[in-house]
Amino acid sequence: VDINVSNTSNNNALFSPTGGGVTVPSVTMANDPANDVWLYPTGAVPGLGTTAVDQLAVLKVSSGVCDSINSKANALASTPAVNDLGNFAAAAATIPSAAWPTNLVGKPIGCVNNNDTGSNGYYFYEVLYVQ
What we know:
Structural class: mainly beta
Order of helices and strands: EEHEEE
């Protein structure tokens, strides 16, 4: 499946009417909507499916938005402690499952605090497909 937001015409493209039929997601809740973009790393989210990698979508957000997401989606009082989850923006980025916050194990949607130098900050995440 092609997850490039610029590819909107192929039948294997997620954001194509003849492919996945999904509309390119909005960045209005981003920390910096003028510059932040959706990223699509992979990683085996503990507690979901098998140990095979899952496809995620992540967007940088503010700490307040992150806390609100975790409160509403996962009944957490605050965002889990910072972890190095890798560089979400790197080509073929893969999130190390051992670093996944224990409060978010088995949660297909939530928000993490990443301290990787390439993707530092708070990120909303949603698992697009589980394997």
